[in-house]
Amino acid sequence: MKLLLRGASAYSPMDGLDGETVDVLLDRGRIAEVGPRLSADGAKELDLSGLVLMPGLIDAHVHLRQPGREDEETIATGTAAAVAGGFTSVLCMPNTEPALDNQGTVSYVVEVARREGNCRVFPVGAISVGRRGERLAEMGELVSCGCVAVTDDGNPVEDSALMRSAMEYSGAFGIPVVSHCEDMHLSAGGTMREGYYSTALGLSGIPDVAETAMALRDIVLADYTGARLHICHVSTARTVDIIREAKARGVPLTSETAPHYLVLTDADVVGYDPNTRVNPPLGTDKDRAALRYAVADGTIDIIATDHAPHASTEKEVEYDQAATGMIGLETSVGLVLSELVAGGTLSLGRMAELMSAGPARTFGLDGLGRIRQGAKADLTAIDQQRTWTVEPARMRSKSRNTPFAGRRLQGAVVLTIVNGRAAHDPLGMLG
Predict the structure, then answer these.
(1) Which domains does the chain have, with CATH numbers?
(2) Whole-number Å distance between alpha carbons of 268 and 197
(3) Catalytic residue among 152, 266, 306, 378
(4) Would you call 306 a catalytic residue per the annotation?
(5) How do residues 185-241 score in pLDDT, each as one tens digit?
(6) pLDDT by residue (tens digit) across 128-152?
(7) pTM, entire model
(8) Rounded CA separation 211/213 (Å)
């Protein structure tokens, strides 16, 4: 079926669209035409006047938990949450049980996603066997079955020689190495960011240099090997500073941060809500300010959710016993619009870059992140004026671990199109 989307304000940085009113014709899973006042015989027409249209959003950091922890999330429920949040593609992390460190496990994820997924799923393979940091996984095998990057996310690669080898091999296969930057000796035993609030609350602290020290090592290795390095979940001002300096020197480096680091601080741990326990921990006001500046000026390339579902038994415990992580797929767009776009930190064009074009470019996702003829028909329509309240019980994710319950947000996804078809249509716009 042909579908003609009329009158939206389109934002697509790679295509020079920055709020222009255009029509977009979709046909057989592709964008057939983009322009003003299009006509198409036999097409179903949908009026998107007053709405924002972006290339389908891409979440570069998601934990789908399958295989192994289907009690927390599955590929089906995680991708249902993704499309509800406006994401047409997700990159799934390898810290499953077993890890995505071999062709069989990765192929399983690819096949389940093909059958049960609501959006595109791109697996990220493990750097090391079992994510134990002892022996490299077979990178060529992982790439051959669909992995777009490698990481031991959840664990840092502490062995510098192993990380060097991973970077050298990654260059041969044309993929980035994604680094979880954490010096485990510095972070050991910590539960939140070290500082005033950790002292006041009587919780053990993690110094910001636990992240920055490892980030600096990996940047030096990337500079030495020429490998493409991607630093995930940046949370500190110090790390921002060294990324900015390295990029200025031409190091092949990209990075991401998450909405919770742009919105919350260590002050939000007051009250001991275990849903505020994340890794790396929430930073200070200074960290948040630096991160906001970094996403605005291009130092940080991507906003990714680090969607980390956990069962209630792992979260409804004492703060220092709680699992780290929060869900984020269904709140990301609302938080970014309410806190960053409405506040003037980001333009809508920059939001589209950080949440669609940037991930597509970083991970080589051909045909995605664009609104142009021939691109894949993945699109996200947003109503900036629509207000809503975060209600965990109504979320599509299997888990409920969000600190944003009850928060009023302005800006909502009203249509998510994957491969030319409506994957999320809460207002029944397509009937």
Answers:
(1) 3-53+376-424 (2.30.40.10), 56-362 (3.20.20.140)
(2) 9
(3) 306
(4) yes
(5) 999 999 999 999 999 999 999 999 999 999 999 999 999 999 999 999 999 999 999
(6) 999 999 999 999 999 999 999 999 9
(7) 0.98
(8) 6
